Task: structure prediction
Amino acid sequence: AALVVVVLVVVVLVVVFVAPGIGGNEDPGEFVGEFPTPPDWQDVRTNTTSELTTTHATETQASTTQASTTTADNVGGPSLTGTTQVASSKTTTMSSMTTSSIGDACYTFAARLSIHRQLQEFDGSPDKDVYGTAVAHLCTNGTLSASATMKGGGSQLIASHIHVSDGVDGTDGADGSGPVVIGFCGSNADPHIDMGKPYAVPCSAWDDSETSTNAEMPGVFVDRTMSVGQRVKDIRARTSMYYFSFDSAASFAHWRQQTGDHRGMARGMLELSSMPR
Result:
């Protein structure tokens, strides 16, 4: 019995004096400190921002590299320098175009056309009373056009040209003959007068008033002895050596049967109408 009492006394003493020191007075927060400490959120934000900044810089560099590569592929030079070269090239080109345009010369020529009576008053000719006018605008840069109004005809118009007289026996654009240098309207099928290149447009048919109106016919340069600029300058310098002509189906058929060749139905020597503006 005395032993039991001693044991009970010891248990009571332990509960009263030892147990509170084990955990009752200890800050529970210190317990948490035994677990791995989470990273500081400011550090996380800083690191994340740094990573994002680095990633953005990498993407920007990649984009810049791609842009530089694209520019280099397109213009043969790197990045902005290549772009500057392109702008400079465009400026130079525009400057050249402007200078070239200023250097071009355009002239207007006119011709009064009528038939050659000795050649066109053959029996049954439907075109023996043809007459008309033509106006040609010719530029040294190759811009060529003409408008013509013909009256009094009956058979299909198959060709219109500017010829240069060969000057044999002192002839000129009024009475000479020579090769085609510029073609306007014409037929690319039979009956056909070959000028070496296709005609740009067909000639207009005669209307009920026996009028054929051919407006703004594109010119086709066919000369092989001069450039277009040289030829236009020569037409300006020697205008009286050139003539505008029309051919008709009836005239073509008649003279091909007679001589194996053709004769122009109507013609007129060129005259300078206006100087370049």
